[in-house]
Specification:
Blueprint lengths: L1 H32 L5 H6 L10 H12 L2 H18 L3 E2 L12 E7 L7 H11 L3 E5 L3 H12 L4 E5 L2 E5 L3 E6 L3 E3 L2 E3 L3 E8 L2 E8 L5 H7 L4 H7 L5 H26 L5 E6 L7 H6 L4 E2 H5 L1 E2 L14 E5 L3 E8 L10 E7 L3
Parallel strand pairs: 2-3, 10-11
Antiparallel strand pairs: 1-13, 2-16, 3-5, 4-5, 6-9, 7-8, 9-10, 11-14, 12-14, 15-16
Helix pairs in contact: 1-3, 1-4, 3-4, 5-6
Length: about 350
């Protein structure tokens, strides 16, 4: 009986040794090619990806006990699949330029209505020392407090809707996007265009904050995720319809931002809390038209949400081909539920 159990255990571990990397490939493919188009993969996009690494140490230990060296080496592939495609590890490095090269430092920050305190938000912005800082999710009733804190350091501060910019350079124009027609309703595009006279010349900045999936996830977690699964509510059609409706609206808002930015003749920067995580089909279908600052020159995972233990990279700074990224960093403050991101850019080489 014991011998039979050992053989059964060995067979199971060998099967897992082969099946684990194959399962990871299936997960990556599903998230990449299906993504928000199906509620299951749309839901999975927002889960912590590190969970996929949980079986790895246990599997390696079991394979070591069985002395299956080839299968142990195969788990290196599993580790690489978890780190790079799934978790989005970047090993890029900053680009060095001469001190005489004109540069522009840009900051992007979802400030979560300044619930962490306008002073703390302002302190994080000032600590990063950007030339231009863009803020989202700032309600009008909190705007004056943050504007006052930043106006001491930035001569040009302007707020509109939930957006605000603080700039060391003159703001030439501000234009809020028109409402979008969606399901026979007119809904906010949640998008503002700024033209600013910078050290690189006039640059068009597109600050966007498409609709969040947060309300959909609150519904699934109302009684605890395990309870929702056991009760079957997680699988109710109405919930899935709501999730996909929100996802389609988010894609429409991002599409509007991309189309507006691509039509711009001046150097363009598209930035904001996009609410689409790494491997999102919407993200790579629409936003891949621009250079991603983190992918170009960032190191690590670049995660920005939630601020305390971030596992999603939602906040992006993207640029058109007239610009090149020199560096990209993620802030450390927990003044908001998002961490800020900051990038140095220069004109692209001729």
């Amino acid at each position: 009986m014991r011998a039979r159990l050992k053989r059964w255990f060995a067979t199971l571990i060998v099967a897992c040794g082969v099946g684990y990397p194959l399962a990871l490939l299936c997960v990556i493919g599903s998230l990449w090619f299906v993504g928000e188009r199906w509620w299951v993969t749309g839901f999975a996009l927002y889960l912590p990806r590190v969970l996929f690494a949980v079986p790895l140490p246990l599997l390696v230990l079991a394979l070591a006990l069985l002395r299956r060296k080839r299968l142990m080496r195969l788990q290196v592939v599993s580790l690489l699949l978890v780190l790079f495609p799934l978790m989005g590890l970047s090993v890029a490095w900053p680009r060095h330029v001469s001190d005489t090269t004109p540069k522009l430092r840009i900051l992007q920050y979802n400030v979560n209505s300044c619930y962490g305190g306008a002073d703390q938000v302002a302190a994080e912005i000032l600590a990063q020392a950007p030339d231009v800082a863009f803020v989202q999710e700032l309600p009008s009733w909190r705007r004056a407090e943050l504007q006052t804190a930043l106006a001491e350091h930035y001569p040009h501060v302007y707020g509109i809707s939930e957006f605000m910019v603080a700039s060391a350079y003159p703001i030439v124009s501000v234009e809020e996007a028109r409402e979008l027609e969606y399901e026979k309703k007119l809904l906010p595009a949640r998008l503002v265009k700024y033209v600013i006279d910078t050290s690189l010349g006039r640059v068009a900045f597109f600050s966007l904050h498409p609709i969040s999936p947060r309300s959909d996830f609150r519904h699934t977690r109302a009684g605890g995720l395990s309870k929702e699964i056991k009760s079957g509510r997680l699988f109710e059609r109405a919930l899935h319809v709501d999730m996909q409706r929100t996802s389609r609206l988010r894609a429409l808002q991002i599409h509007a931002a991309v189309a507006w930015a691509r039509a711009e003749s001046k150097p363009a920067v598209l930035l904001g809390d996009t609410n689409v995580p790494h491997l999102s089909a919407v993200r790579h279908d629409l936003l891949s038209a621009f250079y991603d600052g983190f992918s170009q020159v960032g190191f690590g995972f670049g995660n920005t949400f939630p601020a305390r233990f971030p596992w999603m990279r939602l906040d992006l700074i993207l640029a058109s081909e007239q610009l090149r990224f020199l560096s990209f960093d993620v802030g450390t403050s927990q003044a908001s539920d998002h961490r800020c991101v900051v990038a140095d850019v220069a004109r692209a080489l001729p």
